[in-house]
Amino acid sequence: MASAPSSSTRPTASRPGIHLPDTARDLVKILVAGPFGVGKTTLIDSVSEIRPLHTEERLTEASAQVDDLDGVREKTSTTVAIDFGRISLPGGVVLYMFGTPGQERFRALWDDIAYGALGALVLVDSRRLDASFDVLGLVEESGLPYAVALNTFPDAPRHHTPEQLRAALDLEPGTPLVTCDAREAGSCVDALLALVQHLIDRRPPERR
Amino acid sequence: MTGRRGGRRLVPAYLSTNGTARPSRPQLERLSLLTTSGTPVPPGLPAAQLALLDALREGSLTVVEAAALLELPVSAVRVLAGDLLDQDLVLARAPVPVAERFDPDLLKRVADGLRALKQH
């Protein structure tokens, strides 16, 4: 995808594409949430107009205990890389996608990233559904509306019916469940659309 | 090109903010949009503030994009941007006007925009 066209007066940026076009007006974000290795960065890379960027985030004290290895008490902080990308849409809307790991130990970070988010697209891997329980719990606790997208890995079992998946993931009847190939831009856009349509269809949220 | 790979970051995080851990104003959001104000830069500005100003000279950036570009934690960029805001050297804009936060029209524009992407 080409980077957003810049006006002719703009000097050639040494890092083309990263700076926002002057037309950018409303910046919105969704979380692309899921366990490590489920394809969050792949999905973001497939649709982002910029090469995905990342920030190094320090985890808080609470996480140090979880990460603590025997005899390594000095290890008091851990960092995690949070990938993100964006899509400039017509009408001045820029949609940001933040790849967000869903373990409980990332809660403080999660809350910060989720602040002001429209919703979450939860990516799951049918080979290890249980790895997604934590993230589904976090999303539900944070009150973010969400949709679930099953990333179709080539060697993933295909015998799950949607009903079986819903039951296994304990999804509410109204929660969208779609399949997508995180490597395919069109497929990822469809999954994002399923989420946004869900946000439109549900009752207007209470102000938080 | 987001900085030097494998090397040390340009400014160590703990030095970048001159030891300040909290921004001087209400928390900037990750997607707060930073722009230079055009005010002449006074001499003697700390290197990290200059680095942020420099990054903004080519165009607007969100807080999180500036953090990625400068290889600094988001928390450090919040402090730096807060300092620059206090000196009127940068302007910050909320990601979405407050009145639009829960505007169904905004969601519709996102959906329409995504559908338009699929046409191409």
From TrEMBL, chain A:
Q: Where is the composition biased (Low complexity)?
A: 1-16
A Pfam family in this protein?
ATP_bind_1
Q: Which UniProt keywords apply?
A: ATP-binding, GTP-binding, Hydrolase, Nucleotide-binding
Q: Which GO terms describe its molecular function?
A: ATP binding; GTP binding; hydrolase activity
Region annotated Disordered, chain positions: 1-20
**Similarity comment:** Belongs to the GPN-loop GTPase family.
Name of the protein this chain belongs to? ATP-binding protein
What species was this sequence derived from?
A: Streptomyces mangrovisoli
From TrEMBL, chain B:
Top-rank lineage group of the source organism: Bacteria
> Which InterPro entries does the record match to this protein?
DUF742
Its name, as the record gives it, is DUF742 domain-containing protein
- Organism of derivation: Streptomyces mangrovisoli
